[in-house]
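Predict the 3D structure for this chain.
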Amino acid sequence: MDDSPRTVPPAAADVGVDPLSQGDLEIETYRVVRSDGSFAAERVPDLDDEAFRDLYRWMLLQRIYDERATKLQRRGRLGTIASGHGQEASIIGSGYALSRDDWIFPYGREAGALLLHGLSMRDLLLYWRGIEDASRMEGANVFGMAISIGSHIPLATGKAWGLELDGEDAIAFANLGDGATSTGAFHEGLNFAGVLGVPAVFFCQNNQYAISLPFDEQTNAETVAQKALAYGVDGIRVDGNDVLAVYNAVSAARERALEGAPVLVEAVTYRRSAHTTSDDPTRYRSGDEVDEWEERDPLARYRAFLEQTGRWGAIDEDTIREEVEAEFDEAVDAADAVEERGIDELFAYLHEEMPPELERQLEELRDLLEERPDMYEFIEQRPKG
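Done. Predicted structure below.
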């Protein structure tokens, strides 16, 4: 055996090996309304005037909710929260395209979409107060928040498979950020979705940052949408600050998904606030960058469209603000009014029926507290959701 170092082989002659590169792809960013409010008339969705105005109300609700929730957090009345400021068109446009029978897998910023889907604002506030009961998401087809990045994506695929097996006319809709597309769970979830052909839509709000890491430093892909092709999944890239474009894109994606073709939608937008209320974005991005994206504000763009189409005159923004503020106040009061939880609940929700050993432990704790009522001083009885 010859152990001597191998020489570098000569460069191969041109034998017709042509690698496929992302430069070969042409990926359109779908748009309906331009930044100045002008629009492609043939792409405007077939909605009635009330629906067009309703979209603005929900976008404004998302913004006011984020502002009020952030103030509550600063006063110590909510836990850490993630704002959707700047992403209102992506959040509301996608939520408006869904059926109440669809299942939403949230990632934390889409308050307006969850409220659109039937979740109460009271329960949403209780969730951010850390009240476990609020994770039930009662009254809406909504799974719990995916605080661990990307972990919900395989679950959405599994739920979609279950919907298909049950013959349901519904999809699983997973919200995610651009950072989630760099997790293993993303690739596993999309791969299985493609293999199984499940009714699922994966909606990536590419807000340009994975916490503090800019998009071009956490992936070498030029777009998120192109990642769909590796798994035999359809991909759509849409202007995420154009609410009508997002509505159209998700509507089309939903129809494709119901036909057995899962879709990855990339909504190109920008997070104008901090990643969460525990983040300081001034440490990793410039004010000029934020100002540049502010000029693409989704509410201002949509208002320009409504003005150009003669629909703005029927909108009283001050009244909408007052209504949303009152709705938020009522939700806070309702969240404040929930009763304290008793010690029984330490044991009550671990099993469908409490096993004998837990019953014994509960009785033992009750006896102890009866003998030593001073021990209540060491029990924090948080509100019940």
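The radius of gyration is 25 Å.
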